[in-house]
Write a structure and sequence with these properties.
Length: 342
Amino acid sequence: MTRTTTRLAAVLLAACLVLAGCGAGGGEDGRDRITFLNILPMESLGYAAEMIADTKGFFAAHGLDVTFEATQGSAPAIQTLLAGSAEISRIGDIETMVAAGERGAPLVAIGGVVHNGPLRLVSSQRAPVTDAAQLRGKLVGTPSEGGTSSITLDLVAGSAGIAPAELRRQVVGLSPGVFDLVNTGRVDAFIVSLDTAMLLQATRPEAVVYDPNDAISAGSQIYATSKATATDPQEQDKLRRYLAAIADATAFITADEGGGFAETMQLIGSKYQVSALDRPEVARAALASYVDGYAAGQGPTGISPQRWQATYDEVSSVGQVPAGLDPAQWLDAGLNGTEGAR
């Protein structure tokens, strides 16, 4: 089997599990409304699964009328979920554990899609960072104080025995232009999204990209909802159908890899203004990385309990959540068709 064929077979098999658990109910018009909170602008290939589920009609096929509503990061998304004003969001496993474990928020993870972390650390050939141990004493740019990027940096450094205090940080932007700060030595590296890292690799040959997934388990993107929503039978049905549509979308994107993601890019571009599509080679590289991320988990929308535990162990090791808790209490595998699968 080819690389693509093997991954596609795994995705489709797990998708069948998801679809088997889906209800057929809907509103009077056959489509139920559901609100998805995107913590970043939708016009990013990180949301390729959502955009394909929309433009290819997978949401509609599962009886859903999905509204995408942007928030200013994960914190307001979590607050909106807990207030019952939206049903589902995609946030990081780190934020989920901090909210539920440290702050006691009634938040649960119900599935995943990008099972590898989508953050990358970019340095320059002038002083490349290609290993976690090379972070000692470095000045690293982050998009904000605290937050997922900063915690991810702590975790990567910690994997090499480097204490957080041994790292210096500076708040910088997320745009590719920040690389000029690296090239001139004002910062040693900075954290960016996968899309931006792919763009820099294509346009700045001196850029060096390090993948934190080489060092840590934490960082995956998960679907979260409130415990109240997760235990409401009517809402459960909608959430199952949402995850089923995402399973269809990831299977479609995976299958399209053999064709250079031509149909995927055409569909996304028919409705969404995604800047990466202006450089097809960058879009293809990013989509290939996301396909790897789709295939790295427990089926297309499942969460591996073992990785969930490993993530908790890492996050608690740097003091972001208390030690000695049971992270399984923040995981509801019954909504994605993978409960009991190991």
